[in-house]
Amino acid sequence: FWLKGILTRPRPTLSKLGPQHTLEQMSPAAIQQLLKNGGRYMPDIVPDLEKHLEDQLAQGTFDAEANLALLKLYLLHPELTKTAVLEGILLKGIMSYPDTHFSMCMFQIHEKYHADLKPVVKLSQQLEMAKFKTFWKEAEGVEALKRAKGWEDAVRDFISGVISNMYRTIRADQLTELLNISAKDLDARIKKQGWTRSKEDKTLVTVNTACFESASIEVKGPAKNLTMDGYKSLFFAASVDM
Asked: Which helix (DSSP H) or strand (DSSP E) does residue 160 occupy?
């Protein structure tokens, strides 16, 4: 009964949000306003949320709440579902690793769409298993990635976090393979991550200065949300692919 009452309420229309908010120009604040007071259950906000997703893909921004709200509306109104939009949401999920957003999204996507989304889902599986070289190879054939601005850097940030928690030092040539970057661009990545080249051997890069025997290791970067069990799984899988 509560849902029926929500669905009969008037939605917070764009005109009420002010003249500056149009379908072509929706700010995050305007999107939040649409989702308030049961607005997230109103099917007529779907075009706004779909446009907001396209803005995220084009601008490299991320709005997890809005994307999950859109998936929920697709479940409530399956006739509105668009495979391309599902794909775009999953792309943003991949870019958010190691956050669990991708898995949360998959739980809200009907099984009948999984086959169409297989290329993107397969990429996520490669990242979860730390099959990084395989990921980059297969990514070359996934056209959908071209929709997502900054996806390469987002994935490299995730991989860098995993590397920092798996190694103390690693060869530079291994890093270029795992991160899919040139030797020329490696120094910029080393600087970004706060890594250093070994003074004794410039081909070695120190990626973790913490003592592995220490009881407390401060985890830096995007890898902080991964559990110890997750790292054990990653280490086992990565030992095969690396």
From this structure: helix 151-166
